[in-house]
TrEMBL record:
Keywords for the protein's UniProt record, in alphabetical order: Membrane, Transmembrane, Transmembrane helix
Upper taxonomic lineage: Bacteria, Bacillati, Chloroflexota, Anaerolineae, Anaerolineales
Domain of life: Bacteria
InterPro entries, sorted: Diguanylate_Cyclase, GGDEF_dom, HisKA_7TM, Nucleotide_cyclase, PAS, PAS-like_dom_sf, PAS_fold, Rev_trsase/Diguanyl_cyclase
Domain PAS: 236-273
GO biological process: regulation of DNA-templated transcription
Residues spanning the membrane: 6-22, 29-48, 68-85, 97-117, 137-161, 173-195
Protein name as annotated: GGDEF domain-containing protein
Organism: Ornatilinea apprima
Domain GGDEF intervals: 375-510
Pfam families to which the protein is assigned, alphabetical: GGDEF (PF00990), HisKA_7TM (PF16927), PAS (PF00989)
UniProt GO MF annotations: diguanylate cyclase activity
């Protein structure tokens, strides 16, 4: 039973090495292969040491075992460093860190000439019949080997803990497995040093390596370790204003930064174990984005937040998609700026009503509906009477206030679907959908009275503003109704109202339309 776990572990490690070999071009896989090689050396050397019958053979395999375990601490730190996104530091310092264990290993193999590590090694035979080496290690041995090993594993534990604190979802599961795989053999070794192992003087560290290998295997294959190398998140993702989401090949949430959580309305404790569909459900078209096979860009919104969503598939050497990276860029300011520009381009800056070109554009739909047999529409042209006199008496600022006051009075009296636009100067056009001539005349009269009854407050006292109105309806023109003819007719009626003393409404009736072809002739 003592041998079986070691043999099974050796077989498992060889199997993991064979599978990891397919990723050997990746730095993470190279470091992992070095870790597995050290585990294999440690495990097999311990087995061969136990079954050795001579002191020289036992010392040989003991040296091999210590060499593997000592190098393991270095390669484990290198592996964890690359995995947690510190590959630059690994490259920078690894050539110096490796020198120390290599020098100590060389001294250990030459111990017979200087005895720095062992006093008088010998063989003892425990009750269970296993040959065990009495190493008689010196204090120098422990001072040379233990601090370095402790620093390597503590540094690894620190990197894993820091990454665990900042990571989300599946990455946390990987980190837990890697941490457990590191701690298990260390605890077994600690029990041996404290003399608390089930069999005195027998180390069960090699047996514990089987559990460590199982944990590593799960991290590699169930959680796709080689596709999940962490970026230096503390520098990049945590401070990035854009949201970043990493989805693995199984549509599981692999990583998400704080900006993305804020945009999607997710709390940190909600992201663990989330599927991509659940994490991205706030994005209306998330299902289509998750199915994308190529790089794509889409604009969407979550409430009042407007986002540009970029999806970049990550492919392996066989071009199979291994992950998708979503970046969420807040374009709310850009969208609002565009709407503001659109507003400025569509509306009169002074009065806030539609400008002439946009008014005509929107009115064309109403004209088309009327031509197609829909309900008639009417058009009103109004002009502020003696507007020049207002400017002359009170100045242009008061004139601007007069324009704004008239517009505000008109819009407050009109319906939601009615169009109001500035035609030019102090002239305005009102388009009334689904409105016959009689109704338009009533609306015009209501507007005229509202303006007349609302004098303008000036620095010289109140000034009574009046307006003249010309009203036309599409029924008078039949299928030949057009915006140009309607404006022409209403303009002539407005001119007539001015000629009659202003402050009144003149309606374009059938007689005016046909009389000497006046409006038809002008329109033509």
């Amino acid at each position: 039973m003592f041998v079986v776990p070691i043999l099974l572990n050796s077989m498992l490690v060889i199997f993991l090495m064979a599978l990891s070999w397919t990723h050997r071009k990746k730095r993470l896989a190279q470091a992992f292969l070095a870790v597995l090689a050290c585990l294999l050396v440690w495990s097999l050397a311990h087995l061969l040491e136990v079954f050795s019958n001579t002191l020289s053979n036992t010392l040989f395999w003991e040296n091999v075992r210590i060499s593997g375990s000592f190098l393991l601490s270095f390669f484990w730190l290198a592996f964890v460093g690359i995995y947690t996104g510190h590959e630059t530091l690994v490259k920078k310092y690894s050539r110096y860190l490796i020198l120390y264990p290599l020098i100590l290993i060389a001294l250990m193999w030459s111990d017979s000439s200087h005895h720095l590590f062992r006093h008088l090694p010998g063989m003892v035979r425990p009750v269970y019949g296993f040959a065990v080496l009495n190493n008689s290690y010196t204090s120098f041995f422990y001072l040379a080997f233990s601090p370095f090993t402790a620093v390597m594993y503590l540094a690894s534990l620190g990197l894993l803990a820091e990454s665990f604190r900042k990571s989300r979802g599946k990455v946390r599961s990987q980190l837990v497995l890697l941490t457990a795989a590191m701690i298990v053999p260390l605890l077994a070794e600690l029990m041996f040093l404290l003399g608390t192992t089930p069999v005195p003087q027998i180390s069960f560290t090699s047996q514990s390596l089987m559990l460590a290998s199982i944990l590593l295997g799960r991290a590699v294959f169930q959680f796709d370790l080689f596709q999940s190398v962490l970026l230096a998140r503390d520098v990049v993702l945590e401070t990035l204003q854009d949201g970043v989401i990493v989805i693995d090949r199984y549509n599981q949430l692999l990583d998400i930064n704080p900006a993305a959580m804020m945009m999607l309305g997710l709390a940190a404790n909600q992201t663990s174990g989330l599927l991509a569909g659940e994490a991205l459900k706030a994005i209306p078209n998330h299902a289509e984005l998750l199915a994308e096979q190529e790089i794509c860009c889409s604009e969407t919104h979550i409430g009042q937040l407007f986002l540009e969503v970029n999806v970049v598939p990550v492919r392996d050497s066989s071009q199979a998609i291994t992950a998708r990276i979503f970046t969420l860029h807040d374009i709310t300011e850009r969208v609002l700026l565009f709407e503001q520009i659109k507003q400025l381009a569509s509306y009169d800056a002074l009065t806030g009503v539609l400008n002439r070109s946009v008014l005509f554009e929107k009115a064309d739909d109403i004209v088309s509906a009327a031509r197609g047999g829909g309900a008639a529409f009417s058009l009103i042209m109004l002009d502020i009477d003696q507007f020049k006199r207002i400017n002359d008496l009170f100045g242009h600022q008061t004139g601007d206030r007069a324009l704004k006051a008239v517009v505000d009075l008109c819009t407050s009296q009109l319906r939601a679907g009615d169009l109001v636009g500035r035609y030019g100067g102090e002239e305005f056009v009102v388009v009334l959908p689904d409105t016959n001539l009689h109704e338009a005349q009533q609306i015009s009269e209501r507007l005229r009275q509202a303006i007349e009854q609302s004098p303008l407050d000036t620095y010289k006292g109140y000034y009574q503003i009046t307006s003249s109105f010309g009203v036309a309806c599409s029924d008078l023109f039949g299928e030949e109704a057009s915006l140009e003819k309607m404006i022409c007719a209403a303009d002539q009626a407005l001119y007539e109202a001015k000629g009659k003393g202003a402050n009144q409404v003149v309606v374009v009736d059938q007689q005016r339309v046909t009389f000497e072809g006046l409006y038809e002739r002008v329109a033509a």
